[in-house]
Write a structure and sequence with these properties.
alpha+beta; 62% helix; two-stranded antiparallel sheet
Length: 94
């Protein structure tokens, strides 16, 4: 197996110039795979619901809000969309 050379990017961190790498695509979906391997669909729906409630119920830093919205939407997409999400929430007792 041949290893590809990772791309290196220049960035700034805490006022210093640093060089960073970005993981290859095969690692990009590690979170989704870990969730699928360890949580039931009902648990994923419950988690998405908790994230949505948290974001909607509090004033949050706009960047944090964007990130949490992304997470909740990704979880709902993993379940098959809004309808499946709502059906699974009902099955979970919400």
């Amino acid at each position: 197996m041949t290893r590809r050379k990772q791309k290196i990017y220049d960035a700034e961190f805490k006022g210093r110039k640093v060089r960073v790498t970005v993981p290859e695509n095969d690692e990009a979906n590690a979170l989704g795979e870990a969730i699928k391997d360890n949580l039931s669909p009902e648990a994923v729906a419950t988690l998405a619901n908790a994230v949505r409630v948290q974001v909607n119920g509090r004033r949050t830093n706009p960047e944090v809000r964007r990130q949490l919205d992304w997470l909740a939407n990704r979880l709902v997409t993993m379940l098959g969309g809004e309808e499946a999400y709502h059906d699974l929430l009902k099955e979970a007792g919400f």
